[in-house]
Amino acid sequence: MADEREILTYDLFGTAVRDLAQQVVDDGYEPDLVLAIARGGLGLAMGLGYALDVKNLSAVNVEFYTGVDQRLDVPIMLPPTPAAVDLSGLKVLIADDVADSGRTLESVLAFCADHVAEARSAVVYEKPQSVVKPDYAWRRTTRWINFPWSTQPPLVTRSTVVDA
């Protein structure tokens, strides 16, 4: 059924965070920093930070999706971006809500590549068409995902302009 969706509740999100953190622990990876891809990865990064006892958190804001199955031609990293010197030599765990096309994750991994000792990625959902296979994924799906924080419309409408 084309309208069938993956439904993530806040309770399931809590389970996903702990399960992902356990995957990281079982893998023996000990990140120095958790880097959230905003906005979708912010909650996951916070939860992973607590579960993995990592207090060093940062965020990078990447604009790509503009609506349900609507996206820009390429992901755009919006300022401010973390300073490369702040990432130098660190083991980084990149957190995002979904690797759909994988292009957002790909752009953040490329950003980190020349600056960090090692970067791995954790997502709540991975889709089969993703150009990047995340190191850690809670679930795999082909369906559109209803996240609990984006199911309802915003309470206000703001005009947004992305300068490229």
UniProtKB/TrEMBL annotation:
GO molecular function, one term: glycosyltransferase activity
Record key words, sorted: Glycosyltransferase, Transferase
Keyword presence, Glycosyltransferase: yes
Gene3D superfamilies: 3.40.50.2020
InterPro entries the UniProt entry points to: PRTase-like (IPR029057), PRTase_dom (IPR000836)
Top-level division of the source organism's lineage: Bacteria
Phosphoribosyltransferase domain ranges (all copies): 7-151
Name this protein carries in UniProt: Phosphoribosyltransferase
